[in-house]
């Protein structure tokens, strides 16, 4: 598993919960290996390469498992030019990238641009801030969090509109992941994790709060072998991150 943090680093977490930095950048910049506000992270299971949405540099950077930069794409002029990429999803030699300009970019994993999906709005194949997305690897369908429209849109493997759900329960869905049994949706405004079955019916909600079984300001998550990993961002951790960042700049 890999995750990004606010100190411009990418971390790898093994199954024994040992955290090691793969990419560490102490100074902000636009250099090839520098990251400015990394957001989404995805791993190509066929190669082990790590794809990082470099938010402020408006591109995607690809690192091997040792942290060596392999590729950068999305910052070239043209139809495939990115604007503040947020979420990534990889399946079948294809990578989808959500961005702050309310559309989804479709690339090959080698960085070749294919197509642009969606426009701003609230109808079919229209989006209002789509941060989280994921593939159903069994059929190639795509689940996209349409956050400000309070819904999940499902696209076919050809990236055409199929259906949508969640407007009766969701309130700013931020991220989505799948298991064989359920669709997991992280809802930021309601501070909870919703579980839907594949009939698109709500099965259960894990509500936020101050108890051990509840969530406190969840931000994003991933699922590995039916285990849920949550990045819980609370005030004290933000203060600690800011303190460490200031300390690094003073050294």
Automatic annotation (TrEMBL):
Transmembrane ranges?
Answer: 228-248
User: Which Pfam families does the entry link to?
Assistant: NHL
Q: Which UniProt keywords apply?
A: Membrane, Repeat, Transmembrane, Transmembrane helix
Organism expressing this protein natively: Oopsacas minuta
Q: Which domain of life is it from?
A: Eukaryota
Annotated InterPro entries:
6-blade_b-propeller_TolB-like, NHL_repeat, TRIM-NHL_E3_ligases
Recorded protein name is NHL repeat containing protein
What molecular functions are annotated in GO for this chain?
zinc ion binding
Q: Start-end of the NHL repeats? A: 24-66, 114-158
Source taxonomy lineage? Eukaryota, Metazoa, Porifera, Hexactinellida, Hexasterophora
């Amino acid at each position: 598993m890999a995750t990004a943090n606010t100190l411009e680093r990418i971390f790898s977490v093994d199954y024994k919960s040992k955290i090691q930095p793969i990419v560490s950048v102490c100074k902000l910049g636009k250099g090839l290996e520098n990251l400015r506000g990394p957001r989404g992270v995805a791993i190509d299971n066929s190669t082990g390469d790590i794809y990082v949405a470099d938010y402020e540099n408006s591109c995607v950077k690809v690192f091997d498992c040792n942290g060596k930069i392999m590729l950068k794409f999305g910052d070239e002029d043209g139809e495939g030019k990115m604007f503040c990429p947020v979420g990534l999803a990889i399946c079948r030699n294809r990578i989808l990238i959500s961005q702050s300009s309310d559309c989804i970019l479709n690339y090959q994993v080698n960085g070749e641009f294919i197509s642009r999906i969606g426009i701003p709005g609230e109808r079919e194949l229209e989006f209002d801030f789509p941060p989280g997305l994921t593939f159903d690897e069994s059929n190639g369908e795509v689940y996209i969090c349409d956050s400000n429209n309070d819904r999940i849109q499902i696209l076919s493997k050809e990236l055409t509109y199929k259906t949508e759900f969640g407007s009766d329960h969701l309130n700013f869905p931020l991220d989505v992941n799948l298991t064989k049994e359920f669709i997991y949706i992280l809802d930021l405004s309601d501070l909870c994790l919703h579980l839907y079955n594949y009939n698109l019916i709500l099965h259960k909600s894990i509500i936020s709060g101050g108890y051990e079984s509840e969530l406190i300001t969840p931000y994003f998550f991933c699922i590995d072998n039916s285990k849920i990993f949550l990045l819980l961002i609370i005030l004290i951790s933000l203060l600690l991150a800011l303190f460490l960042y200031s300390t690094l700049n003073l050294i």
